[in-house]
Amino acid sequence: MHFSALVSSLTGMVHLASAVVAMATGLWVLVRPKGTRTHRRMGYVYAGAMAVLNLTAFLIYRLYGGFGIFHVFALLSIATLTAGMYPVLTRKRPDYLLQHFNYMYWSVIGLYCAFMAETFTRLPAVVLDEAGRPMTVFYWFVGIGVGIVMLIGTLAYRRYSPVWTAQFGEAAQT
């Protein structure tokens, strides 16, 4: 694949760079110990990268020529990110750490879902018609890919959330 097929503008390059940073830092924050200075720093890098990623998403109209389903998901991503950052910035509730974790966890899972969807937009011969519009198979590919990521994310959440809940519950009590 030629680089111009991956990134066709400065906006696209910024979008891609912020996505790579968000994916790396988001995964790091999920798998590493919580509450450390490094966790907080990496978390702020993730939040900043996600803000840039979502803002640049509203400047990209390659697939639909206007506002499309991915823009709706960018709005959902902004809401999840905001809901995850608000508790730690305000510390208004005793369970603010648990709220923060829950929303930020799903923010990262949503990012990986978006990665799956974006991956399928890069298969034009398979998923786009001659005019460059998504064909039905595109939505099947995206739906199945996103479903797999959500399933893995949900299974991991169910497995590890009791541990995290105990950790954050203890932190909320101190």
Notes on the protein architecture:
The chain is globular and about 55 Å long. The chain contains seven helices and no strands. Helix 2 packs antiparallel against helix 3 (37-57) and helix 2 crosses helix 5 (96-121). It is mostly helical and 174 residues long. It has helices at residues 3-6, 10-31, 37-57, 69-90, 96-121, 124-127, 136-173. The N and C termini lie far apart (53 Å). Residues 1-5 have low confidence and may be disordered.
Quick structural gist:
79% of the residues lie in helices and 0% in strands. By secondary structure, it is mainly alpha-helical.
Quote the average pLDDT.
84
Give the strand tally: 0
Radius of gyration: 18 Å
Question: Level of helix content?
Answer: over 70%
List keywords for this structure.
174 residues, mainly alpha, globular, disordered N terminus
Topology, element by element:
Layout (H helix, E strand, L loop, with lengths): L2 H4 L3 H22 L5 H21 L11 H22 L5 H26 L2 H4 L8 H38 L1
Helix pairs in contact: 2-3, 2-5, 3-4, 4-5, 5-7
